[in-house]
Design brief:
The protein has 2 helices and 17 strands. It has 305 residues and is mostly beta strands. The chain has one domain (5-11, 24-287). The strands form 2 sheets. The protein has a 15-stranded antiparallel beta sheet with strand order 1-4-5-6-7-8-9-10-11-12-13-14-15-16-17. It starts with a strand and ends in an 18-residue tail after the last strand.
Length: 305
Amino acid sequence: MKKNWIIAVGIVAALFITACEKSESDFEELGENVTMAEEEVADLKAAEATSSDVCSARFGAHLLQGGMMVGGSQMFFGTGFPSCATVTVDSDEFPKTITIDYSEGCTGRMGLEKKGIVTIEMSDTIINEGAVYTVTFTNMTMGQREISKTATYTNEGLNDAEYWVISFESLSTTTFEKQDEVFTIVREFTGEREWMAGFDTPEATDDIFLLTRNGSITVNDELKFSKNTIEPILIDRSCDWPLSGIVEITRADETMTIDYGTGECDNIALVTKDGESEEIELNSGQFRKGFQRNNKHMKQNKGWW
């Protein structure tokens, strides 16, 4: 018979402080018109805000043995796991379900306020090749955004470089309001994480991996974009922002690229379209001052950004 083990995460050590440049963490205010570049940056930040918690919880699940947390809560989830979240594990046998419940005003990695439920259904411990886990968001909000998501992850084993590879398929819907207009953005992606470090620990700050996400982005059931990862995005979770990588977003005969850099931990990516390049801040999710926004928003048939 399944047992319920309710683990209230206590006060944990402060998040690892890096030399990364800091700025405002909210990305709700995108200015007069919403651009796809800003929305893409905001989506990656929101995904990382929960993904690191999921990685900690799904690894920590295999440490629950006979109703005991091996090494205590710090070892179970890692020191960076938000103290405002409550975790439920329904069994000490696989398959098992882990539930992360973010309380009102819960803020963790990336500085985003979260509220809602994340459910992780696991077939086996994640360190076994062939293990599958499904992640579901229920009543999840981040700032003024409502986010629903279902994603399935599979451990594909070690590649030739001896790195663990986790493939995934995901479907998410983000809803928010700007200037009295409601935006609903549906993303359907496939991709993988190639883990270079941190796969076999519950800590977030030792995670290093290459991320690819390819698929479609649909806005308000009418604007359709395709997205492809040209160079995998390098994520080092000791830094708040991607270190490198290039993504390409296309609609009709127009293409835009977002270049996350060459390995430095900084708050800037370079967006290029129609022969022009503009810097975008990754923390705020906004183009820097000087960006001429007029007629560049995503609803334009031509000249969108």
